[in-house]
Amino acid sequence: MAITVRPMEKRDIPTWDAYVRKHQEGTFCHLAGWSNVIQSGARQKSTFLIAEHEGRIVGVLPLVHRQSFLFGDALISTMFAVYGGPLADNESGYEALEEAAWELTCMLGVPSLEYRTVHALCGTKGSWVVDKGASTFRKKLKNAPEDILLDIPRKQRAVVRKSLKLGLTCRWEKDIDTFYALYAESVRNLGTPVFPKQLFSEFVSEFGDSVEIQVIYAPDGTAIASLMSFYHKNWVLPYYAGGSSLARKYSAHDFMYYKLMVHAAERGATSFDFGRSKNGTGPYKFKKNWGFDPTPLEYQSRLIEGASKADLNPANKKFELMVKIWKKLPLPIANFIGPSIARHLG
Question: Is 238 found in the same domain as 89?
Answer without folding.
Answer: no
